[in-house]
Structures are given as C-alpha cells and as structure tokens.
Amino acid sequence: MGKTLAEKVWDEHVVRSTPGEPDLLYIDLHLIHEVTSPQAFDGLRLAGRTVRRPDLTIATEDHNVPTLDWDKPIADPVSKTQVDTLRRNCEEFGVRLHPLGDVEQGIVHVVGPQLGLTQPGMTIVCGDSHTSTHGAFGAIAFGIGTSEVEHVLATQTLMQAKPKTMAVTIEGSLPPGVTAKDMVLTLIAHTGTGGGQGYIVEYRGQAVEELSMEARMTVCNMSIEWGAKAGLIAPDQTTFDYIEGRPEAPKGADWDAAVAHWKTLVTDPDAHFDKEIVLDASTMTPFVTWGTNPGQGVPLGGAVPDPSQYDDDSDRIAAEKACEYMGLEPGTPMRDIKVDTVFIGSCTNGRIEDLRAAAAIIKGRQVDKDTRLLVVPGSVRVRLQAEEEGLDVIFKEAGAEWRGAGCSMCLGMNPDTLSPGERSASTSNRNFEGRQGKGGRTHLVSVPVAAATAIRGTLSSPADLD
Amino acid sequence: MDKFTTHTGVGVPLRRSNVDTDQIIPAVYLKRVTRTGFEDGLFAAWRNDPGFVLNNEAYAGGSVLVAGPDFGTGSSREHAVWALQNYGFKAVISPRFADIFRGNSGKAGLLAAQVDEKVVQRLWDLLEEHPGTTVTVDLESRTVRAGEGADAIEDSFDIDDYTRWRLLEGLDDIGITLGHADEIASYESTRPSWKPATIHAI
C-alpha cells in the first residue's frame, strides 16, 4: 500500500524505531524565541550539555518585543530581562540570532519561510504552537514545550509517537472575497477545537491547490486551533516558485536535486488516511467568531447563536459562558457588533499579501472615528516591502497606526493589549478569554473583513462599503 | 525528575470544558526565565472571582485537578504545566487533553490522567457535595479512586505506556536519547547536502 505525504516525511526522519516506544525523529530545523527557551538553555548548562547542531537552529525575538520605539532599549524591565537572556544564551551556545533592530527580525513563523529555511519534506519544531504554519511547504512542523526545546537543542531529535493521518479535502473554488482564513475558520467550526487531535492533517483539493503560498500558511497556521498535531500541504510549483532564490534556498545543482526529491512528496493514490473530511469551498462565505474559542464561529451574515438550542450540555454551558464573557445577546446579527480595535498582523495574517489586501480596501477611505486600527507587519522585511510599495502611507492617511514587527496584540504579551471590555476584530488565531489583554473581547476575522470593519466600525465585509 | 507512583490529595472540581492555556496562565505571566514562581499566574483571571473554586477554603491545599474535556488547548507554553505544579497540583484528570499540554505534562512530571467523561461528572458531584474529599491517582495500576461506601468511585485512566514508564522511573529523556548518539550520528551522515543550514562555513 502507498504512503501519505505525512508518512513519507515522517519515515524519512526516523533515527530509531522500537516497538512499544515512540520513534526517535530527526529535526531539520529548530526555531527559537525568547519566551519558551530560557529554561531550556538553563537545563543544558546545569547538565553540562551543548547545542548539538547550532547550524540547524535559528533564533529571533518576537513575542515580547515592543512595536513602538523598537530602536530604544525595551522599557519593561521584565521583558528586557527575557530578551537579554535569549541574547546571552545565543552568544554562549553559538546560535544565530536576529534581534530587535536586525533586518531579519520578526515573527519566527514569518522569518523561516522568508529566509528560505522552510522547505518541503523537512521536520521543523519551535516552542510555539503555531509552528504548524511551516506545514504549508509540505513539512511536518509542530509546536513543542520547553522540555522538548531542551531535548532538541541537546540531541537534534525528539521522541514522538507516530500520529494518525487525516485528509481534509476542500473541493471547488473559493468565491471572490472569501479567503484562506474563512476556509480554516469554517473548518474549525465544523470540527470543533478537538477534532484534529492525534492527527497530522493533509489539506488537499482544488481550493487548497489554488491558494498562494502565504494563504496556505494561514490555513496550516490554524491547524493547532482544531487540535491537530500538524497540518501540511503537498508541495507543487507554487511552493517551488516561492522558495527559489531566497537566501537559504538550495542553489544550482543542489536546487535541481532538491526539487527532484520534493516532487516525490505527494500522497500515493493508494495510500490510506485514518480519517477524511470533505468540504465545499464554493459555499463558503466570510466567517467570523462570536465566542471564546476558534470553533465558535458563524458566517458574517449570521447571528450570535442561542445557547439554549445546543443539544450537548458541555457545548451549551460553554456557549453561555462565551456569550456572557463576550457581552453578546443571542440572536444579535454579527454585522451589528461594534468594534473598538482592529488588529491586522500575526503569524496567521501578517505577511505582505495580507497587508496588500488590507491596503487595497482601505485606500482612499478613513478609519471609523471610534475605532482604532493597528497594522503590525509580521517581520522587518514585510515592513520594508510594504513601505517600498507605499502601503504604510495608505494606512497612515486612513488614520491607522503603522507599527514595527512582532507578535504584538495577537497574544498581548507586549504593550499592545486590549483594555477590559474592549472589543477587537483580529486577523490573529485565538479568541480565548483575555488573550489580547485582560477582559478583552476578540472576534477572529479575515484580512478583508478586518479592513472593512475598521472603516465601518462594525463587523463588515468589503461588500458593505459601497 | 522525581518518580511518580501514586498520589493522594484533595480533589479540586473545575467544572469547565476547553480550559485553554491562556486561562491556565495568561501570556503576561510568561516573562520569567525560571521554572518556578508561576503559581501567581495560575487561572489569574478566574481567581479575581471570589466564587472561583481555588478561592474556596474547603479546597485549600488541593493537588488533584478535575477538569472538563479539552484541557490545555492552545499554546505550547510549558509554563501552563509549571504553574499548576508551582501551585501544588500533582495530577490533572480530564476526559481529553490537548496534545502539546499532555506531552509537556509527561516531560515535567505532572500526571495527566485521561478518564471517561462520566467519571469526571461523578468526581465533580462528589467533590462539590463533600469539599475536601481526597482523590487517589495510582499510576502503577492506572486507577483513580475517591470517596467511600456507596459514593465510592473507582475507575481506570489512560496514559500511554512510555510516559507511564518514564514517570514511574523518574527518567530524564535527554539522557535516554543521548544513549543513542551513535544512531543519531549515523542518521546525520545520510542527510542530503542540499538540506538548509542556518550557519555556513566560511
């Protein structure tokens, strides 16, 4: 019997396999940031261990860094200590670091692909759950905790039980104005937050093949939001075109050898998936969340659901608590919900295509007078590219705040946070209680919905602007 | 890591599903560079509510958390496990754990015991009716026990064989893996030369 894409990549990385034990899996690339690494480096020091492969390791500063005054010392002393600790650790252990102020600094999941370090068929890990982003290239990529970060630093391997495989086939084509974000939010509302648990998921089908590389990253990025171990997409010409010519991409004969191998990284026709889900892209519409987990979403044209209509007790209680936290009455049309802050950015939607899409909608319009629009590029390279194209001017003329690169309001670890009760439309990935600041209320949206919402001040799509 | 064989402690009923890592410990508490001191951030938002279970004196010193399904969803932050441990929890019981959280628990020595949803319902009822009741999680026999007489609960819990063995033995994963250093080196010698590197020889 043939193999799935995930099985092929997995099997190529097994260092050691013994019945009754997890596989020992080789890791091709280890991404590091300031929040989940200090205790791992401490562990190495305590045990007198070194980093086995600094040449397969790269670090940047993203979670905790300010997006204003990034050329000045970090004002918050606790944040500064954490960032300084990363700098000391990278120096001591010989790890390549792109610190705040460096042209390659940015969100770790934007930086890897942009440098050409993310390539098909790799195993990629990082102490961050959105590492699944890199699966867009046909890599097995997943988030790990700090103990595992230490394990990879010391051994360049991880002990992992082989997950089951699932196919998510999205047939047809997305209608105009409907994006990869709407696709994945629709999927998560369908499966629930635990639906992918224990699986590596392969996204496939016409609608997935038609996505750009950046849109594929948006889909894979949110694999963890429905519990999947990882999500990946078979590499194709779109993938190869994106990688070719990037700083760390293979060159010359190496390029040819790499592409020849990458072309084998597809699921065999007779391969078996443990589970399959099929969705139709042509029926999808702009999709937004109303609740406090990414599965609590409805079409933008819909309304806040009535918890009393839920059959399952635990779903009903969760929906009641979500409505209460979000300050929403059941039955309220989503388009009537007024938003205080719009956040465009994050590893989900902070790449250049996202900023171009937002600017195209915002150009020549003004941000609603009661609404704040924060635009945060995913990396310094994205910021510079946007500035070269004049996108920053479009945002600023519309009354938006144009910021430096980082995770920013996605998780509210730096000064960019919501106040209690403040409501956001956010292109990020999590709407958990307090995620963007204590008491903050988050609606997850696509980039076009975010841009239109900033103009109208209520949840909107670009079609509502004319 | 300390060996984990069996633990008996006051059970704390957390009657919620989908307890995500931002609820277990919000991001603003993740700035420490140590593995200790995270107890203040544990369930930080909910602890402002005087009615929250951890603010109830009857559950003081609780060490076995009983939660609804999909516990630990979201972020990869191991700080969520450390915060529970720093506070005093030795075990969490839930019908379903998020993958990364369960993995982190196994590495850090917190027992994540997966039980049937009905068992959680019965434990919640028992612990709410008789606050201060202890719960035993026996890793040797993979059994959870609580209560006495007619109310007594005894059921099995799931944990994968390998994690159970490591917890019982208190083993350090890295030490085990470094025992296979030859196999790692041998694998490395077969990696294609076009695979990317972050540092290049000059």
Structural summary, described in words:
The complex is a heterodimer of chains A (466) and B (202). Chain A is built from 16 helices and 19 strands. Chain A is globular, with a radius of gyration of 21 Å. The N and C termini of chain A lie far apart (55 Å). In chain A, helix 3 links the parallel strand 4 (57-60) and strand 5 (96-98). Chain A has 466 residues and is α/β, with parallel strands linked by helices. Chain B is of the alpha/beta class. Chain B has helices at 21-24, 79-87, 99-108, 117-129, 161-169, 173-178, 181-188; strands spanning 6-14, 64-67, 91-94, 111-114, 134-138, 143-146, 153-156. At the A-B interface, helix 2, helix 3, helix 5, helix 10 and helix 11 of A face helix 3, helix 6 and helix 7 of B.
Main sheet summary of chain B: 7 strands, mixed
Element order of chain B: H for helix, E for strand = EHEHEHEHEEEHHH
Mean pLDDT of chain B: 96
* Overall spatial form of chain B: globular
The number of helical segments of chain B is 7
Summarize the structure.
The complex is a heterodimer of chains A (466) and B (202). Chain A is of the alpha/beta class and 466 residues long.
Layout of helices and strands:
The complex is a heterodimer of chains A (466) and B (202).
Chain A: H1 5-12, E1 14-16, E2 23-26, E3 29-32, H2 38-47, E4 57-60, H3 77-93, E5 96-98, H4 108-115, E6 123-126, E7 140-143, H5 146-155, E8 157-160, E9 164-171, H6 180-191, E10 199-204, H7 206-209, H8 213-221, E11 230-232, H9 237-243, H10 253-262, E12 275-280, E13 287-289, E14 297-299, H11 313-326, E15 341-344, H12 346-349, H13 352-362, E16 372-375, H14 380-388, H15 391-397, E17 401-402, E18 423-426, E19 441-444, H16 447-456
Parallel strand pairs in A: 3-4, 3-6, 4-5, 6-7, 9-10, 9-12, 10-11, 15-16, 15-18, 16-17, 18-19
Antiparallel strand pairs in A: 1-2, 2-8, 13-14
Helix pairs in contact in A: 2-5, 6-8, 13-15, 13-16
Chain B: E1 6-14, H1 21-24, E2 64-67, H2 79-87, E3 91-94, H3 99-108, E4 111-114, H4 117-129, E5 134-138, E6 143-146, E7 153-156, H5 161-169, H6 173-178, H7 181-188
Parallel strand pairs in B: 1-2, 2-3, 3-4
Antiparallel strand pairs in B: 1-5, 5-6, 6-7
